[in-house]
Amino acid sequence: MPKIFITRQLPESAIAKLRDSFEVDMWPYEDQPIPKGELLNRVESADAILSMLTETIDEEVFLKGKQLKVVANMAVGFDNIDVEAAKKHNVIVTNTPEVLNETTADLTFALLLATARRIPEAVDFVKENKWSTWSPFLMAGSDVHHKTLGIVGMGNIGQAVAKRATGFNMNILYHNRSRKREAEQELGVQYAEFDDLIKQSDFVVCMTPLTDETKNMFNDDVFKKMKDAAIFINSSRGGVVVEEDLYQALINGDIKAAGLDVFKDEPISSDHPLLELSQVVALPHIGSASVDTRMKMIELAVDNISRVLNGEEPVTPVY
Ligand code: GLV
Ligand code: GLV
């Protein structure tokens, strides 16, 4: 019987379908990632891995996993997987696109609103018993409506963010490798060169995947070009940002605030410099974290594995 290794504890109801036809081995903790050494042991006899974005699936894994046919990542991003190594070893890689678009766009817009209107800071203010009177500029933040939103990376999640922004009467710019003419028509968004978008936007929202081209793209030079009142939002991958440069930009007033759902090294600890700043709203990488969507992501990963092991085409291969 083909064997599947699941790198994190998942609900039995979600993986029952796999247990019917395959032998399933599962890391028994939901809140602890599997150590690399343990992953290497477990992959030795596996035909498939259902992986999380916390696992680095590299050449070492493919060398050990001689029977491996598919790695199904429970994420739309797959920068944790060495795709070239996978190809070399004839292993199919799949991700979970589409099912998380709306949920991730909701979180991204929530983070934008929370950062602009200083909601986490205001919540703490009340809970810490600091609210002594209404005042004219108490927790006064930035408007969102009628401002310019610049979306960097106009894939389906970027477009779902743009759609939300239309309801706030925002002026929407986007930058992407390819023009999205349909989105331009349907959402009234305008293509802009990267530099123009950076200079003109009140909110710069990063939605681009982490690749060799996008790594460290938000650096000192870019933050300096933004408006002093600009708010930077990132819910894609931390590696697209030089965090030291973002910290300096916030300290120097080159930009106003940042809302971050992702970081270069996750999890960050409470002494991370960015957390010292009241104008930073930080979340623990929860873009797609609704119960329904997480269940759909598992379902899609399960489907991809079943199909490959049954000799069929996967639903959502990454290449
Ligand atoms: C989450 O970050 C994902 O890539 O699905
Ligand atoms: C980034 O701007 C991209 O091309 O997706």
UniProtKB/TrEMBL annotation:
Chain ranges of the D-isomer specific 2-hydroxyacid dehydrogenase catalytic domain: 4-318
PANTHER family: 2-HYDROXYACID DEHYDROGENASE-RELATED, GLYOXYLATE_HYDROXYPYRUVATE REDUCTASE B
Upper classification of the organism: Bacteria, Bacillati, Bacillota, Bacilli, Bacillales
Superkingdom of this protein's organism: Bacteria
Keyword Acetylation: no
Keyword terms of this UniProt record: Oxidoreductase
Xref: InterPro entries: D-isomer_2-hydroxyacid_DH, D-isomer_2_OHA_DH_cat_dom, D-isomer_DH_CS1, D-isomer_DH_NAD-bd, NAD(P)-bd_dom_sf
Oxidoreductase listed as a keyword: yes
Molecular function in Gene Ontology: oxidoreductase activity
Protein's recorded name: 2-hydroxyacid dehydrogenase
Family, similarity comment: Belongs to the D-isomer specific 2-hydroxyacid dehydrogenase family.
Pfam families given in the database record: 2-Hacid_dh (PF00389), 2-Hacid_dh_C (PF02826)
Top-level class of the enzyme under EC nomenclature: oxidoreductase
EC number of the protein: 1.1.1.-
Ranges of residues in domain D-isomer specific 2-hydroxyacid dehydrogenase NAD-binding: 109-287
Recorded coiled-coil stretches: none
